[in-house]
Amino acid sequence: MTAAKTFRDLLVWQEAYKLTIDVYRLTKLFPIDEQFGLTSQIKRAIVSVTSNIAEGFGRVGIKEKDQFYSIAGGSLSEVESQLLIAVGVGYIKESDFTSIEPQIILVQKLLHGLRKVNKEKGAKK
Predict the structure, then answer these.
(1) Residue 1 belongs to a domain
(2) How many whole angstroms separate alpha carbon 97 and alpha carbon 23?
């Protein structure tokens, strides 16, 4: 396995990017009057996932990297919660959520793995 040269080489970023596109498509189903409410909040949170992975990759220190990867994980949990709210209020069907849920879980697992590897690198120093 070759070392990532840019954040785009990270599998976790690639999968988070796919999720971001899926979430944007899903929010198009929301009512137009929600454009500045839940829709906006979900979009900000999902973009935060890929952005914080990229920013963490660009940092030098292990603790700094982990902080950004941790924020990405928090934003991902926020997206999951907000999508569940969207189901609850009837903006999307439960089947819409269950179709995107495996990608959420995959990104969560990949982020966890990235943080673990990052911490192991820090422990070796």
Answers:
(1) no
(2) 10
CA angle (44, 73, 121) in 5-degree steps: 135
For 39-71, b/e burial (b = at least 16 CB within 10 A) is: bebbbebbbbbbbbbbbbbeeeebeebbebbeb
Dist. CA 116–CA 120, nearest whole Å: 6
pLDDT at 5 over 60: yes
pTM of the full structure: 0.92
State the pLDDT at residue 31: 92
Total structural domains within the chain? 1
Residue 84 structural domain: 7-124
CB distance 92 to 30 below 8 Å: yes
SS3 97: helix
